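Bumping with the actual sequence this time:
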Amino acid sequence: MDKTTIVIADSHEIVREGIAARLEASCEADVVAEAADGYTAIKACRHHQPDILLMDLSLTRPSGEETLTKVRSSNPEMKIVVVSSDPSISNAFFVLSQGAIGFMPKQAKGADFINAVNAAKSGYTYLPVEFLKEFVKSRRNLTRTGNIFGLSPREVEILEACVSGQTTKEVAHNLNISVRTVETHRNSIYRKTDCNCSADLNKIVLSMN
């Protein structure tokens, strides 16, 4: 049986080497390339056409988010497992919405990396148990608006306006509501989505589209 081919993309050489050694020893895998940045990861995937890309979301040149999007668009059949040092629910929603098949904390144990790769090999999504619990919790918040966070139609409007770069005053003016009302809705959005900054909100919008 042919071995599963893998590209590992992480900015730290010692991390790449450690993961590669563990996967090759335990997963019938062949790590065909390692990449320290987004550009090298994209190039390696184009050249080797691996079965799996295991990538860190914090890649640079280009960013992990852009790398994920570019690899997915040019290699739609490739299975992508994303690891992140910020394993927030917003990051999980984002990477899955962009076509990743797995998401896990960078601090995970070696056995977790093996399980994630084995799941990807079989075509199954991999998420840590704590993320599954959060997904179930979020699923229960579905409303008639169709978004998984239970945002009201007005909150969805304000969310999209905020991530578009509009100031609070501009949002209030365009929606014909008060600045205080915008701030109240925005605080509610942060609470419901478990986000802490505008960058996280932007990922939420992308996952909803």
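The tokens above came from a reply further down the thread. The mean pLDDT is 86.
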